Amino acid sequence: MTEFRSFRADSIVLRHSDWGEADRLLTLYTREQGKVRALAKGARKLTSRKAGHIEPFTHVTLQLAKGRDLLIVTQAETINAFLGVRDDLVKTGYAAYVLELLDRFTYEEEGPNPSLFRLLAETLERIEQESDAWLAVRYYEMRFLDFLGFRPQLFECANCGREILPEDQFFSFSAGGVICPRCGRGLPNPAPISVETLKYLRHFQRSSYRDASRARPSPEVQKEAEVLMQGYFTYLLERELNTPGFIKRVREK
After folding, report:
1. What per-residue string of b and e applies to 25-58 under the rule 16 or more CB within 10 Å gives b?
2. Residue 190 pLDDT greater than 80, yes or no
3. What average pLDDT does this structure show over 79-93?
4. Which of 14, 78, 220, 253 has the maximum number of C-beta atoms within 10 A of its C-beta?
5. Which of 81, 115, 137 is the C-terminal boundary of a domain?
């Protein structure tokens, strides 16, 4: 079987770093191969034609050649630079957050996950288009957890299996879901979750984005849902994410 030494990849740039004197090392999430690294030679030179196409959270078509150790970017064509995201610091923070989640939870050699790629691309579009991107980000989190096999249990108690009743509950990061009041009393430091917040998380978990986008949660529910989801991700990763702190600082200005 002949191995192709060059191929096109529908890609989103997760991050980049300087490499050598003039090159740039890219971390990409591609539709065709999942997460990969690639070297953009000469991308830091003022005359480089690639430089504008390989900034973080750019959706780009790349021609990649197989080098000795790394893939090499030979051509780059921007599909969407998400300029509306870059012009708004809060939206920039949200975009960086969805990229950081995907970067932390995925590995090279995992292979392609076209559904995850599509979710990422659609979420960046929603962040750019929506006046308030909070809902787009929460919807991304719930779908993201589904695709990675960490779907939180929201309809039955994650400890005893009983149906969750319409009353304030607890959320257990270690159990991966909602805990009923009876079970929650015996847990060390359970996170409380209100009826309203649980209702919206359930809605995001089982709805299309079109249906989910009709939700109008209060500021209190928004804050509670955000804190809960970030707590869950921190537990799964065993470390804190960098971007929520940036988003908080930008909002407070």
Report:
1. bbbbbbbebbbbebbbbbbbeeebebbebbbbbb
2. no
3. 93
4. 14
5. 81
